[in-house]
TrEMBL record:
Enzyme class, first EC level, given as a word: lyase
HAMAP family: OMPdecase_type2
Keywords in alphabetical order: Decarboxylase, Lyase, Pyrimidine biosynthesis
Gene3D superfamilies associated with the record: Aldolase class I
Boundaries of every Orotidine 5'-phosphate decarboxylase domain copy: 17-255
Source organism per UniProt: Luteimonas soli
Keyword Lyase belongs to the record: yes
Name the record gives this protein: Orotidine 5'-phosphate decarboxylase
Pathway: Pyrimidine metabolism; UMP biosynthesis via de novo pathway; UMP from orotate: step 2/2
Length: 270
């Protein structure tokens, strides 16, 4: 089954468009993980198991593991998700982008080493830099379009031939790069107007929406501007607001409550 098919099934079976972000920061872990040598894996595993019911996808962010030399924990975490929660797709947030000969190794890293169902990619180097990911028809390629950060517009809003650059990205991905039907786009919740423009360009293409929760994006505006015509189409991603909903040893329960609240809030506006 392809990433997009898996995602569509999961949207329906979970009645959720919440993507649980996995950004482990040991300084924020609850006391019970102090001195635990495998804390990164154990913390994330507990969050995954507690929130799976409310998740349409999980999104581990690679830097949070790699910075600590914990790629093996990331590998085991993704294996745990596949084994324990089959049917929930894993999006590796790595924002890869390089010349083709290097990009093919990034594709192998994401899909063969880590066994992610999809990976985030940066379109700045052009199509050949993304091609090794696009070639994997069963896996998803989630391409940065309009990111959530305050400086997103520095380049992404630049006028290029009468339209902002991010709209060219949306158009190019939807019309030219999506031959295998395995593309999705990243649009920040913090930019609702741009989200509306992107949705109008790309039809029902899935959109990964970071920026609710800790970054302050408005859930109602996300749903109003980003929902696809089929009533789905969104992966509303939240990391810190779910992971660190409590700093105590009840953090997994608190994460489940936060994920459930986000799911319910999204669904209220659908
Ligand atoms: O435009 C983007 C693209 C990716 N991200 C990533 O999403 C999460 C957001 O974390 P929160 O704690 O929910 O703010 C993080 O992993 C980013 O690297 C993004 O924020 N914006």
């Amino acid at each position: 089954m392809t990433f997009i098919m898996q995602l569509r099934e999961r949207w329906a079976s979970s009645d959720s468009m919440v993507c649980v972000g996995l950004d482990p920061e040991p300084a924020k872990f609850p006391p019970k993980f102090a001195g635990e040598p495998d804390a990164l894996f154990a913390f994330c595993r507990d969050i995954v198991d507690a929130t799976a019911e409310y998740a349409c996808a999980f999104k581990p962010q690679i830097a949070h593991f790699a910075a600590r030399g914990a790629e093996d924990a990331l590998e085991r975490l993704i294996a745990h998700i596949h084994a324990t929660h089959p049917g929930i797709p894993v999006i590796l947030d790595a924002k890869r982008g390089d010349i083709g000969s290097t990009a093919q190794h990034y594709a192998a890293e994401a899909f063969d080493r880590f066994r992610a169902d999809a990976v985030t990619a940066n379109p700045y180097l052009g199509r050949d830099s993304v091609q090794p990911f696009l070639n994997r028809a069963d896996r998803g390629v989630v391409i940065l379009c309009h990111t959530s950060n305050p400086g997103a517009g520095d380049f992404q809003d630049l006028d290029v031939g009468g339209r902002p650059l991010y709209q060219h990205v949306a158009e190019r991905v939807a019309r030219d790069w999506n031959g295998h039907g395995n593309c999705a786009l990243v649009v920040g919740a913090t930019w609702p107007e741009q989200l509306r423009e992107v949705r109008a360009i790309v039809g029902d293409m899935p959109l990964l929406i970071p920026g609710v929760g800790a970054q302050g994006g408005d859930v109602a505006a996300v749903v109003a501007n980003g929902l696809a015509a089929d009533g789905a189409g969104l992966l509303v991603s939240s990391s810190r607001a779910i992971l660190y909903a409590s700093s105590g040893d009840d953090s997994a329960d608190a994460a489940a409550s936060a994920a459930k609240s986000l799911r319910d809030e999204i669904n209220r506006h659908r």
